[in-house]
Amino acid sequence: MDVTNFSSQPHWRHCYRNICTDNFVERKHSFPSPFTTSFKTHSRTKKITMSSEVVFNLEYLTRLEESARTLESTPQQRSEMMFKAQREVDAYLEQLSLDHPTGWVIPPKETQGQDKLVQPGQYQVQSGPNQVQSGPDRVQSGPYQAQSGPDQVQSGPDWVQSGPDQVQSGRGPHETEPLPIQENGVSIDEVLRDFSRIGNEMEREGHPGHMAYVPGNSTAPAAIGDFLAASFNPYSLNVASCRRAVKMQQMIVQWVGRLFGYPSACAGNLTSGGTVATMVAMTTARDHKVPRSKDYSRSVLYLSELTHDGVAKCLSTLGMREAVVRKVPVDDKYRMDVNILRKFIENDVQNNLLPFLVVATTGTTDVGSVDPVPAIRAVATQYNMWLHVDACYGGFFVLCNSAKHLFEGVETADSIAVDPHKGLYAPFGTGLVLVRNGTLLRNSNTRQHGNYMQDQLTNPEDWNPEDLTFEQSAHFRAPRVLLPLQLYGVATFRDALQEKLELAKYLYLRLKGQAHIQVVEPVLSTVLFRIPGVSDNTNRALLREITTDGRFFITTTTVKGVLYLRVIIFCYRTHRQDVDVFINKVKDAVVKMELPEVEFCHAG
């Protein structure tokens, strides 16, 4: 009898025993089709005769099946899990408010005077097995209790403190270890209770007081989009696998392309973030401008001193670690100095180097400044260079009429990177790359399928996402971007972004009127300020005073050798009343520092 021989595979050998003499009760569809078997009937049972080299145990297979079916959840089980998960989400989101008794951005560094954070009778929220209650002076959360009385904030046996400088954990790092991976599972209540602790041990992205870095935001429809993507789980990078999923992604890419004035011949892809989007663009630039690897060591990349560090990082991943990187100084408005750029390039050409790529930024992370793209484009064209635009932070401000002029010339760039997980409030892990000439992008990434896919029907006219990026088997990211846009409409996002621009101007004008404060006029939604004429340590002391209770999270940055306190207003939950509270905090902090009287304010 001809049978498939699994006996030579170690992971099968220990699982089965020889069953030539075993009897089994007859079962319908007892054996999978790859096994060829012969049967001899003995009364009410069937004896199975197989090659002595094949080992197979029907009872063992049945037990495996019963266990594996645990993964096949029922509608009732799914509803119960989703309901309990939603309660945890609601309990967390309730705290993303300056008015909530535990509504901090980061766990407070200072614990004295915390009774001021609790308003009697406010915010009573209950969450099933993990209850959150707030009365006159207490917040409780299941087995992990947080209490805020006259002089303390505690979180059960494991409490965390985090300010600008430190993170402390009450009993040591092991106290905050996640629930371990075990041989046998536990209840959904235990899993969710453990997971929800993350809300007390993190920078709370999406909090109105989170004004550091470029805070992440996520909307409810975006979360639902991720749930749908994971549940349907299509392979979304090939038309043959799911044409509709591909169309959804292409629709987003083309819509973003039109925002920046790109032609319909552009192509792009959703990526895991801005750095990967930049890497895909730089790969295309490398293949088009520096086709021979022997020239990598004399290739030159030009950045401004304020370009995001992720751009230069990509060179190593691209195999161009030996390439030369020139950091161009910025002018008094924090824009790339095009005259110095030109001098750098002229000097490199004279030294037999190969200028191949220049990166302009529309919304620097430190300042929010915008490089002069038309002038940089002219230089790039003169020297046959690729122009890439980093629009990861500032890009979606192009939706706002008051900011459109800042993006003049971007339509001429060879490639653009932009982050929907910033300006479109998608979850982290959502970037987007655009290449003006889509054919160049495709040439750099076209996939050559293995033999196992030789029967797949393909059409050369189809532009599959897997041929426009190095990623394969990527998450289906389109729903997290598309559902919120479809549900709320573009106008809602435009208004939210325009509000942030207006709030930045509002903060600038309010701080400009304060004694002892020097403030830099914002271009987008980032505001820099400092106390002039004092040491950097004094400005850091101001930062600590502002952030000590955890209600606001800002950081410092150093620009052109000067240390500033940096505020970015980007969270969609941040509104004027939140900015007013922040302004009062700055004023109170300055007063506490007892600085000498001045006759006028300092404005930058």
UniProtKB/TrEMBL annotation:
<keyword id="KW-0210">Decarboxylase</keyword>
<dbReference type="InterPro" id="IPR010977">
    <property type="entry name" value="Aromatic_deC"/>
</dbReference>
<dbReference type="GO" id="GO:0030170">
    <property type="term" value="F:pyridoxal phosphate binding"/>
</dbReference>
<dbReference type="GO" id="GO:0005737">
    <property type="term" value="C:cytoplasm"/>
</dbReference>
<dbReference type="GO" id="GO:0016831">
    <property type="term" value="F:carboxy-lyase activity"/>
</dbReference>
<dbReference type="InterPro" id="IPR002129">
    <property type="entry name" value="PyrdxlP-dep_de-COase"/>
</dbReference>
<dbReference type="GO" id="GO:0042423">
    <property type="term" value="P:catecholamine biosynthetic process"/>
</dbReference>
<dbReference type="GO" id="GO:0019752">
    <property type="term" value="P:carboxylic acid metabolic process"/>
</dbReference>
<feature type="compositionally biased region" description="Polar residues">
    <location>
        <begin position="124"/>
        <end position="134"/>
    </location>
</feature>
<dbReference type="Pfam" id="PF00282">
    <property type="entry name" value="Pyridoxal_deC"/>
</dbReference>
<comment type="similarity">
    <text>Belongs to the group II decarboxylase family.</text>
</comment>
<keyword id="KW-0456">Lyase</keyword>
<feature type="modified residue" description="N6-(pyridoxal phosphate)lysine">
    <location>
        <position position="422"/>
    </location>
</feature>
<dbReference type="InterPro" id="IPR015422">
    <property type="entry name" value="PyrdxlP-dep_Trfase_small"/>
</dbReference>
<protein>
    <submittedName>
        <fullName>HDC protein</fullName>
    </submittedName>
</protein>
<keyword id="KW-0663">Pyridoxal phosphate</keyword>
<feature type="region of interest" description="Disordered">
    <location>
        <begin position="124"/>
        <end position="180"/>
    </location>
</feature>
<dbReference type="InterPro" id="IPR015421">
    <property type="entry name" value="PyrdxlP-dep_Trfase_major"/>
</dbReference>
<feature type="compositionally biased region" description="Polar residues">
    <location>
        <begin position="142"/>
        <end position="155"/>
    </location>
</feature>
<dbReference type="InterPro" id="IPR015424">
    <property type="entry name" value="PyrdxlP-dep_Trfase"/>
</dbReference>
